Amino acid sequence: MMMKLPKFNGGFGEITENTDLNTKYVYVMRLTETPIETLDSEISARQIMSKNFIVGSCSGKFLKSIWDVLRQPYNEFFDSNSNVNQKLLDGSPTEMLKAEPKNKNKLSCMNFNRYSHYYQLSTRAREMRLKQSIDSEKKKENNPLPDSTSVHAETPEDLQSLINSVEWTFEHTEGVTHLPIPNLPQLSDPKLTANVLANDKDLIETLDETVTSWCTQIANTIEASLIKNMEAEGPLDEFNFWNTHHTSLSNLNEQLNTTLVHYVISILINANSDTVKAFDVQKDKLIKKYLQARENVEFLSTLLQYFTIITKSPNLKEIGNIIPGLIDGLNMLWMLSEFYSKDENMVALLERIAHCLCQKIEVHLSVQTLFLLPYGDVYKLAVNAKNMLEKWKKCYMLTRQKIENSGKGARWEFDRRRLFHRTDYLASVCDDLSKVARVLIQFENIFGTELKSILKDQTEIQKIIKLVQQLVFSIQTVDFSLFIPDNKENWDVIINEFYKDVAIVEDKAKIFIDDSFENLRSSEEAMEMLLKLTNFETRESIHEQLTMKFGVIMQQFMKEITTIQSIFNEHKDDPPLLHNHPPVAGAIFWSRSLCKKLNKSLSLFETVTQLADSEQKIIAFSYYKSLKQTMTDYENKKLNDWVQNSTYVINKSMKKKLLKVVRINNGNHDDNAKKEFSIKESVITLMKSNSEDSLTPTDVINYELYKKNNNKIKLAQIVTLKTQNKNMLKWTPGKNIKKKETTSWRDLQENHLLKDYNLMYSVNFMKELFEIIYETEILEYLVGTDLPLIIRQCAMQKDRLHNELEKLESIVKEYNDLQNKLVSFECQLLRDHLYDVEKHLHPGLERITWTSLGIMDFIKNSSNSTITKNICVY
After folding, report:
1. Under 8 Å between Cβ of 812 and 822
2. At residue 32, does pLDDT exceed 60?
3. Distance between CA atoms of 26 and 10, rounded to whole angstroms?
């Protein structure tokens, strides 16, 4: 016996092949990556495996399967009471069984691993709705503030939004209406004309049935699109409705305009079929509805941006700003649209907008959470809400008046109660909330951070702040909706109680202010706070108390002067400096910063009219002037001493030649020389390899002659002989030196290198100059001192000096390093090239100073003559 069994194919991973719409898929999805323990019994497997896997099935039409699952099990499950949902979400279905002991046997067999079990349970939950809703209302009265259950309350709304999205996608992809077309060979035969086919009775009968089904399908489509009326009440839903309506009718209209449909109708016309008339009637209805939907979509598209902002924007001020443009757009819609030129349709659209604005107010100004925000934000929110609603009515009335004044077109004679009754009431509620927030802000200004900053003990102020925060408790815990006009009387009672509590807090504030000014931390902050408090609108008794506090503040100012004077006298010899501050600029900045603390208070006190004839003010100001003069003298002395020293260093440094000659440090050679020679300062200078001043040619000649005669010839008998041969120098003892000052490096180095004299080049620059420049920058930009021209000009050359010094040091180091590497025979081999390099460096020894204009040309010429250029082979 042959049996036909279903084919089962298993696999892992995603489905990559083309799915068959008629194939049913069973999927197993793992939830965890950790290993699953081995289970011993079926009961344990049911309990544990369901937590590690999701098992389900779907058809090849995945979107349709998702839609079915969302509509049936999940949606009905969340339709049950929120308490039941909470127990199910917590994984405690046994609590429901305890609530219904009669169904225990029936429900205890459920393991809640299938959607059908939740579906059955939700059915029982709906029967319990009435009883549990009463308990829920009592619970809300006892605990009006939102709690964790609000999270679960939002879940059905999110689920419904997902269902609507899936439904819309399904309808626009797979749910498109298709006209049934009979598969008749006669219709596709090009040899058979419509006249010939009109004589085929069987064919005509089949086509009559087909067209009749078309008529029915057209009527059903129109009816179905109208049944899906706009359940939501926002303006964006109006557009979505007409857009969906237009899509469904457009799809059907396109099918009716196909060639095959026209061919079928032409056959029936030739056959004089009565079905054609019914078809024409339905088609005319379809076209009329389609054109109306298309026109409405086109007109509403011009307002879509406004509708989107009104519906989705959280910024009430932004919504208020676009209302004038929205009203102008509605006016154009009224004049141009055939559908919206009718009163009932335009009123319905305006009512949707008004309803959306009211919903925005309810969401953003919910008193349960509103006053958890900063009071300044609450005030702005309430004011923006009020302005938005008032602008809605104002713009409507202006447009209405504009239409009447133009005398063209129909007037806006709409029911104002429908449009503005609730918005006017909500505007008054927003005004009340803004006034409440304003009162809280005024208390916050007195007992806020500014008053805290001048008080040492803040315990009492915390008590006052707590009383202020409790003022809105009665508003936060109202047991009615203040946004419903019928609750206006209840709301008025709440507001009156609020202002009574405000009066009590103000009386306690007067006592607290007296105690607050006895312990001040800063006279300046206290004066600023006192001036603000005197300008604050409050009771007359509080104002009188505040005016008596100016004397207390002046006493605090005198204490501050004494404290600053003590600090200055203690640290003026060794002032504390900020990080990277040089000594002089840092000391001046420290002195001025001490004085600045008092300057701000002094400037403030001079503008206070209440202190114009105060004796305490006169005494405090005299103390301040004496201290100010002492600090000024200290700063001037520091600055003058530094200017004098800096001017000397700058003049000396800038007049120096670019390069200098120093003796090469050869270790023992110089040590022995120091022991042997101590005759004259010039000789001792020659022995120092790191001298700040450059060696002169005369110093070199003296030293070389001294070595050559082995200390047998006195220095006073050294003379310079004229050369018989330009390549040699000769000496004769017995005469005084007369041309020592005229000897140049060029004369000394004819056919000789510095290395021959045990000498080398070095950059002749005083690094103290950069310290002076840095000090100058701090004094100019930080302290603001006007410095002498020579110092400021030196500071302006900082970048030039840095650049030139860096390049000169690089050239000199390159030449000196190479000479140190060369041995005697290499020096002889490269002697001409080395001499040429030193010839280019001679101007830096004899002529060019740091004030010269040709330094960069000298550097360029020297760079072109470096060893790397001239001795590239080496």
Report:
1. no
2. yes
3. 9
Helical H segments across 572-610, by residue range:
583-606
User: Looking at per-residue confidence, does 807 or 699 come out higher?
Assistant: 807
**DSSP label at 70?**
I
Comparing CA positions, the residue from 70, 80, 238, 242 lying closest to residue 165 is 70
Question: Do 270 and 194 meet the contact criterion of CB atoms below 8 Å apart?
Answer: yes
C-beta separation of 306 from 326 below 8 A: yes
Tokens of 322: 């676009």
CA distance 515 to 786: 48
Residue 25 pairs in a beta bridge with 58
Residue type, 494: I
Cα within 13 Å of Cα(763), Cβ side: 21
Q: According to the model, what pLDDT value does residue 690 have?
A: 42
- 424's CB contacts (< 8 A; 6+ apart) are 389, 393
What count of other Cβ atoms lies within 10 Å of the Cβ of residue 11?
A: 8
Least confident residue range of 38-42, 332-336, 744-748: 744-748
Distance, CA of 143 to chain centre: 38
Give the long-range contacts of residues 243-246, CB within 8 A, separation 24 or more. 243/297, 244/168, 244/171, 245/289, 245/293, 246/290, 246/293, 246/294, 246/296, 246/297
Encoded tokens for 364: 């953003």
Q: How far, in Å, are 664, 684, 717, 719, 767 from residue 737 at the CA level? A: 26, 19, 7, 5, 35
Quick one: DSSP state of residue 679? S
Q: Which amino acid is at 419?
A: L
Nearby residues of 251 by Cβ (< 8 Å), 6 or more positions away: 176, 177
Nearest to 664 by CA among 819, 559, 442, 466: 819
Tell me how crowded residue 354 is: count the other CB atoms within 10 A of its CB.
Answer: 23
DSSP per-residue string spanning 86-123:
HHHHTT-HHHHHHH-GGGHHHHTT--S-SHHHHHHHHH
Q: Which DSSP category does 520 fall into?
A: B
User: In the structure encoding, which two tokens stand for residue 645, read together?
Assistant: 């020293």
Half-sphere exposure of 72 (CA within 13 A, CB side): 12
Is 0.70 topped by the overall pTM?
no
Contact (Cβ atoms closer than 8 angstroms) between residue 148 and residue 223: no
Torsion angle of the four alpha carbons 399, 403, 404, 408, in this order, in degrees rounded to the nearest 10 = 180
Residue (of 716, 717, 718, 724) closest to 704 by Cα position? 718
